Amino acid sequence: MNQAVILAGGSGTRLKEITGYLPKPLVNVNKKPLLGYIIDSCRKYNFRKITLLLSYQSNLIVEFCENSEYDDIEFEYLIEDSPRGTGGALIDALKSLDERFVVIYADTYFEINFSSFIDFHDKNNADASIFIHPNDHPMDSDLVEIDDQQRIIKIHPYPHDNNWRSNLVNAAVYIFQKNTLLNVNIAKEKFDIAKDIFPNIIKSNRVYGYISTEYIKDVGTPRRLSKVEKDIQSGKVNILNKANSRRAIFLDRDGVINREIGHLSNINNFQLLKGVSEAISLINQSGYLAVIVTNQPVIARGELSIEGLNEIHRKMETLLGIDGAYLDRIYFCPHHPEQGFDGEIEVLKINCFCRKPDIGMLEEAKKDLNIEFTDSWLIGDSERDIIAASKAHLKSILVRKNGLDYAVMRDIKPTYQKDNLLDAVKFILKN
After folding, report:
1. Contact present, 110 and 215 (Cβ < 8 Å)
2. CA-to-CA distance for 239 and 243, rounded, in angstroms?
3. DSSP-assigned letters across all residues of 232-258
4. Does domain 245-430 have CATH number 3.30.70.790?
5. Top-tier CATH class for 3-225
6. Which of 84, 170, 188, 205 is the most buried (most CB within 10 A)?
């Protein structure tokens, strides 16, 4: 893939107090224009042909590109006479585009591995792929619904309804096959890629969502711009790049995240414990990944379906999202070796490698997210959690359960012990 299309026509109304007359792509992020970071990333991943779709103060953007040291980049500038929206601008540009290309919004700062994104697109023989991720403000973001093959079912624009939704946000980086867009016919003068084009093309069942935990944020407001600058300065941006080994705080679910009531199978009984949202938000801010690894024997016992479990997890993600927190990934084991339950699922009644105290879920997360175990932690409330942490060479914290002291264990002891998740996370980040 050789071509990147950068949507750079915005005026940046919400940033006027900072940019003045400058177009939004030229806002300084730590004294460097945002567009410079985007072009540098394109060069890093060998996009040598960059097509910029321009409108407001286009001459300043052209001047920036031509006067910078980008001799190895072939720039093309397509300037609108009147704004047609992101969708209209893209469709109007089709004659200048390659058979496949990446689309980037110029109000976004990111540090992502485009090679992995492209490989995902090619592996699925996709018509289009959307970069999706969890974020700390899902309630004012477009949420993407996918199936178990990561095909996109629907995009839910904000404001949202009262249904529980997974925290999978459209990060506004796309890969398109040109042929997919040739027959798009939208009867509006001005239209949007996410709101208008994608609903038109997802009917093909070949539009996919690429889930990533890498750093990507829009800088559309002074507050978000300030946050991005701080994240760059702290090193968080580079820490989260999938090309680098990353660190995680693995979390058990029942008794750590939510109130434990035995084998949870009724969504109405799911309640976040006090301080959990704050704890996970602190993890999010730190650069650690927040990853749940949970045994769910209720599936094998026939007490809850996979879809029922997914709905409980959607509730969990929604409640956390309301509080500005998110989980980077959720892994669960559906197996249970003991038999004799009414309605049990025979094929799941096995001794597996994923059920804690074994480490299959941890190993899967390590592979998926490029996690370095020696820099990571596991917080749990049972001996199974602590044994799993020991097997994987993770540092561990045992959360005291029902006020009891579990420091003395039969097989192995935790590295530390704390009263609850919030105390545990504060301890990790302080030390």
Report:
1. yes
2. 9
3. HHHTHHHHT-TTS-B-EEEE--BTTTB
4. no
5. alpha beta
6. 170
252 annotated active-site: yes
Does pTM surpass 0.70?
A: yes
50 forms beta bridges with 4, 75
For 251-291, what is each residue's pLDDT tens digit? Answer: 999 999 999 988 899 999 999 999 999 999 999 999 999 99
pLDDT at 404 over 70: no
d(CA 22, CA 74): 24
Q: In angstroms, rounded to a whole number, what is the distance separating the alpha carbons of residues 205 and 125?
A: 11
The number of beta carbons lying within 10 Å of the beta carbon of residue 102 is 23
The answer to whether the beta carbons of residues 155 and 194 sit under 8 Å apart is yes
Q: List CB contacts of 385: < 8 A, sequence separation 6 or more.
A: 252, 356, 357, 378, 379, 396, 398
Beta-strand pair 32-33/3-8: unpaired
Q: Kindly compute the dihedral angle of the four CA atoms of residues 78, 84, 88, 91, in this order, to the nearest 10 degrees.
A: -20
Question: Which CA distances in Å does 132 have to 141, 261, 303, 311?
Answer: 11, 33, 32, 19
Give the closest residue to 29 by CA, choosing from 183, 232, 292.
232
Which one of 107, 142, 254, 328 is the catalytic residue? 254
Spatial separation of the C-alpha atoms in residues 238 and 256, rounded to whole Å: 29
- Residue 32 CA from chain centroid, whole number: 26
Domain ranges of the chain: 3-225, 245-430
Catalytic residue among 136, 196, 252, 328: 252
Instruction: Quote the DSSP letter at residue 427.
Output: H
